[in-house]
Every structure is written in structure tokens, then in C-alpha cells.
Amino acid sequence: MAKQVLVTGLGIVSGIGISVQETLTSLLAEKSGIGAIKYLRTNHKDFPCSEVPLSDGQMSKMLSVPDNMPITRTSLMGILAARNSISDAKIIPDKSLRIGFISGTTVGGMEKSEQFYRDFLENDTCNDYIKIHDCGACTEVIADYFGGFSYVSTISTACSSSANAIVLGSNLIRLGLMDCVVAGGTECLTKFHLNGFKTLMILDKGNCRPFDAARAGLNLGEGAAYLVLESDESANARNADVLCKVSGYGNACDAYHQTASSPDGKGATLAMQNALVMSGLKPSDINYINAHGTGTINNDESEGTAIMNVFGNCIPPVSSTKAYTGHTTSASGSVEAVISILAMNEGFLPPNLNFKNPIEKLSFAPVRELIRNVKIDHVLSNSFGFGGNNTSIVFSKIQ
Amino acid sequence: MKVYIQGIGNISIQNTFRQTGFPEPVWYNESYVRCIDPDFTNYISPNEARRMSKVIKRAIASAKTCIAESSVEMPDAVISGTGLGCIEDTEKFLSAMIDNDEKFLQPTFFIQSTHNTISSQIAINLKCNNHNNTFVQGGISFECALFEAFILFADNKIKSALVGGYDEMTPSYFRILNRIGLWKKKFEGSGNLSNSTTPGTFAGEGSVSVMLSSAKNEKTYAAIEAVEILYQPENIVESIETFLSRNSKKTEDIDLVVMGMNGDVKNDAIYKTISADMFGAKAHAWYKNLSGEYFTSTGFGLWFAANCIKHKYVPSYAALNSHNAGKLQNVLLLNHYQNKNFSLILFSAC
Amino acid sequence: MDELILELKQEIIKVLNLQGVKPEDIDNDAPLFGDGLGLDSIDALELIVLLEKNYGIKLEDPGKGREIFGSINIFAKYISENRKK
After folding, report:
1. Are A7-238 and A246-396 in the same CATH fold?
2. Which of A108, A145, A214, B119 is an S-S bond match for B80, by CB 3.0 to 4.6 Å?
3. Residue to substitute from C33, C42, C49, C60, interface A, most A β-carbons within 10 A
4. B179 with A130: Cβ contact below 8 A
5. What span, in angstroms and rounded, lies between the C-alpha atoms of B97 and A114?
6. Cα separation of A92 and A71, whole Å?
7. Is this model's pTM higher than 0.90 or not?
8. Which CATH superfamily is domain B223-348 in?
9. Does A254 touch chain B (CB under 8 A)?
């Protein structure tokens, strides 16, 4: 008999705040984190981004990370968010508990490698950063800050990485292999990503406008978010406050193109359908969809088509919150999972900022303004990655 | 639970591709070696191949071969492990970005740099809309992928899974990893690795795809009974004992212990402890003298263990002692990465 | 113009790694995308980089690429009229 997967802690760091409370305040104040680049050193400052409003030094200080310790911004943000989630859950990672850490990330330690790559090739001055280049090493730096984890794993499925971390963590708990898993992801802004997305010509020089007819691309963001997932036995035994449960999820592959989403939204449709089937819910039970909604021509139309495929004539309120946080790439799955859970528990619909006119081919328009005092029992969060790695997760209120 | 190995595609620095059983070993005296590649045009059309780096071509070829060998047409899941993904294209994009001061960058190299492009291109090639995932956990990336497949089997979510480990060793990354002491300073040939008393190992690369199924057929290599991933275990010997007893096995039941030894004294010490404390009277073998060390070399280890079971012998050049491996009924594959990440895989003959 | 057309074909073959394709295989009037050479949206982005790098022409709108890359003749004409180097 599969166990219930409960969420007992949240932690989030993004351009709209470095704690759950700050994030909630920004969401309710309709305050976006997108603006001019401040921390990233790049020639392409003309692209607005959403940066975590802390320097590496400030984060190191907050976390008491020694000055001489080689660490990437991705790991620092990850520690900060994971620490928030762990203290929210009032849990202590310890070998007496079967507790795991699963993190999603895409370019790992690239933030340092792009600064030191010439040195890596030519001299020994930056060898400490070679060791923390790969994605797994980034996760281990975070896990080792806390200690006590008996299972550590890293997932890299582009922009659905952290959603897949939540899926794997949930599976480990459902099957009784772990008592508790801290799952999510972290990704700092890098020149590598900014230049990469620029070559794809999908960056908007203005603020992104997901689901708008005139949308012209995404804004990159950075962030980290983790959920503390826990079995009901473990949560009951320690009298933990339960925030919600993970009631279903689906992972499907679009198998269409390396970057483009299919016009019929096949992979996205399957991911949402699988999540609904697993949760035992009908489409009409979903009260809010937090869309992937990047603001690119291709994603929003394909995702919108998939939403129409799944929800037909009863499409629940939909919004993308990427105009708040920017596209936090691998972290977006867990960043938006936290936002979805906040919306559900606080009873509000976050608006799809910057939206003006609907996409002609779609039968729905996203949430235009903040709506409060809404009863949300079930929320669906979509995360879709390049290569068609699509994942949808349903979170539900504890009845 | 038993999951059956129905097919394996293995491109390595040995002549393993489309070989039945163990090929004649190839020994290397040079420290930087690349895979013995097949003719990819048999597996990939020129139009598909033009953007693919080596690691992706190999992944497609090994995936297709393993599917052809199995009786599964469309896997219920495609799960890959890779330490560094397409590092060749990552380096191209990174170098161009630095050299050209963030100008004139080519999108193809960026697209190919994402780790999940391997799993995703396998799915595109197979037109497979099912579960798709990519694990990037350093030296146990392959085992992490295998572990997830196991979870999905245990949950009755899937009846088959294409699991793979894919990594390439570019000249520059070889050089970079050399700086942090991964390779031997003075390499005395892959055939002499077992006598080594110095730090550092022998670099390799490879692409291994495995078709796992809940059903066995007449060609099945072996069954996998359990997979476990451990992070910083306090006492690895105890962890292995717990793992075996959880799977209703005693140390006496193990006929062969396949170990991820690689000739690096810092790496191999823990295996010697495990061996002395638990498996003194048992047959031991290794495979990294054949595959070289790379992030997903355990894929090669799986191929090795599965072939020992299927063909009922341990090649002499891979044996670490002279103990008899008996009927090769139960085989344990142990691997670790930097004494932090450990993996345990329990195989049995079927 | 013939010189530019040949140069362009050679560059396209090189940048897009069109294995086994020779310049004379590419029809000057045939569409480059879709059925013609079988190119896709990623190739269009590669050609936009080529335009900027080799000819100093900067395209901001990827949609415009589709018109310019209609055929080798259209492409060459556009370059000769707009090139900055």
C-alpha cells in the first residue's frame, strides 16, 4: 500500500524574495523581481533578468560559509532555500531518520567554470573549482552543509529538473524507501545560460508577457526552492505541521524536437493527464493551474493547446508567475511548486503579470489580476523542459 | 522483485559493441584513449547525425542495439545517467563565449550542452512519449538512473525501461581532470593497473544501454534483484549486510563480488576493507582495467556482471583472486565515487 | 553574384554540417527549409549567426529569417543588398 506524501516545509529564494514570507508578500503586492542585471558580469546587460537580491558574499555571510571555501552561487542559493525549508519543517537531517536530498540543476558549477575555464586549461590556480563543476558536486556541497542525508541525487532535465526531483522524492516516500526527502532545485544566472538563450532568440528585451498575443520571449531568472516531503507516519510521529499533500504527478516526453514543443502539445497533455489519473481527480477538481508559461511564442501556444486538450470546456484559472520571478530554468519547477502551494493555502490566484490580449488559437485567457479569498483544494503545476521533458504535479489540501 | 536484463548495447574502449560474450581484451599503454566506435551511419541518418556529438551518436547506437536484442519494442521509460553530458559541445560553446567575448555564438552547441539532450534524443529517435529522466550524480549517475527504474518497476508503473550511462572524455577535459589528480602521473598500461600502489587511475569513456523488463525471455542475461544508493554511509560493511539481508541473502550466497576498483590507492582501499571483512573466501573481479574510469563506468560494470552470469565464467584477466565463482548464481556489484557515494547492485542468474 | 552564391553554399554546408552535400547539390531556387534541404528552426538560428558574423547583418526578428532564407538566390540577394562587411 503506497504511503501518502505530505509537504511539511517550504523554502524559496528568488528575485521576489529570499524567504517564503517575502515571496508571499511580493506575490500579493504584484511586485516583479525582473529588472536590470546587477550581479552577473556580462556584455548583454540589455536583457532584463530576475536576480536574487544578494551578492555571493552576503549569502556566504548569512550562511556562515567560510570565505576560502570554493562554492558556486548555485550552491549558495540552494543552501539558503534548503535551510529555509528544513527549518520550516522543524526537522534535523540525521542518519537516524531515512532522509534524502534530491536537487535539480542544469549547468552545475558553470558560474565559476565560465570565469575560470582558461585557467582550468592552462594552470593550477583554480583547481578547486574543477571539482565543483559537475552538477552532482553542486548538490553535494548543499547536502554536506547540513550533513545527515543518507541518499543524495541530482536530476537534470532542463527546465523541469526540480519538478522531477519532487516526483522522485515523492516516489521514494510513497514506496516506503525514505521517511523524508528534501526535494527541489537551484540555478543561478550564468553567462552561459544568458548567451545560450540569446542564441535561441527567445529572450524578450522588455518584460516577458506569458500567454499574451504579442509575447516576445522570456526573461531569465535565478532561484532555488525546496519542499520537505514526508511520509504520514514520520510527520505524525513528530507532530509536524502539514502544509498539503502531493496527490499526483506525471512525467512524459514530447519526443518531438530538441528545443521546440509540439504544436499539439502531446507531451504536456500526457504529463497533465497522468498527474490527474494518479491523483484520482477529475479535470474539474483542479482549482488553479500554475502554467510553465515562459512567454515564448512556442511554449505558450503549445502549453495552452495541451491545457485545452486536458480541460476542454472547464479550464480552471491559469496563470504563469514567470513575469514575477523570471524563468528560473531548472529551479522553476520547485519555485512554482512553492508558489502554487502558497496560492492554495492562502487562497489567492496570482495574476499573470503583463498580460493584455489573449492568443487567438487559445480558448482561455490567464488570470489578469490578483484575486483573493478563493477556495483552492487542488492545484496543478506544470514544468516543461527543452527536449520535451514534461512534468506536471498536483498538490492538494489536507482535508 | 526481479527485473530482467533483456538486452545490452555497449560501446566502449573494448570491442564490446554487438559482441556475444567477452571479446579479446584490448590493453592500452597510452593514458588517453577513446571508444572503439561502430559505423554510425547504420544507426543514424546523415540529417539526424549532423548536429550530434560523439556521445549522442554512441547513445543512439547503443540504445538501438539493446532494443533490437530485447523483445521490447517501446520502453515504458527512458532513464539516463551522465556525469558531464555532452561535454564536447559544452566546451565549444564555453570556449567560443570566452574567445569571442559573448558574440557569434552557435545555438546548436548550447542546445547540445544540456545534459538531458541524450535521453531526449533517444526518445525523439524512438518516438517514445513515456517517462524520461536524466541523472547527473558524478560517479554514480548510472546507478541513480537504474535506481529510479527500479522504483518505477516496484510501483508497477512500468514493465520495461531503457537505462543508460553515457559519458565522453574530450582531450581538454582529460587535461582538466588530470589537474586534480584523477589520472596516474606515470601510467604503466591498463594491463598493469591492478598492481598499482600510486594514486590516480586510467581514463575511459563509454556508452552502455540496458533494456530492463519485468519479463524474461530466452535471451535474458540475468536478473537484477535490488539496487541501492548510499550517501556517506557510516559503516559500509554494515550497510552491505543490511542490503543483503533485506534481500534475503547472506554473504555466503554471493558467488562473485564485482568491484569498482580502478587502480587508484585512494579509491581501492575501501574495497579491500569490504573484501577482507565480508567476502574473504569469495571470488572477486573488476572491470575498470577494461573500461577505464569515467562517471558512468558502472554501466560497463553491469555489462560485465551480466555476461559473467550469462556465460557462466569470469575472464581470467578480470579476476582479482583465484577463488571459484561456483555457479555464478548471485553476483554483487559494488561501486563508489570518491568514498562518498556508494552503489550496490544485486544480480542473480535466472 | 555567382561568387557569393558559391561562398554561401560552402558556408551553409560547413556551419550546418550537411554531410555528403556538395555546393552543386543545392538548387539556387529551391527552398532551404522544409522539404528542400530538410533544415529546421535551429538551422535558421545558425544562419542568423552566419549573417552577422560573415556579413555584419544583424537580424533581431527570427521570423524574418524565414523570408530571407527562402532560397539561395533570395539569401544571396539579401546579403548583397545589406552587407556591412
Report:
1. yes
2. B119
3. C42
4. yes
5. 9
6. 23
7. yes
8. Thiolase/Chalcone synthase (3.40.47.10)
9. yes
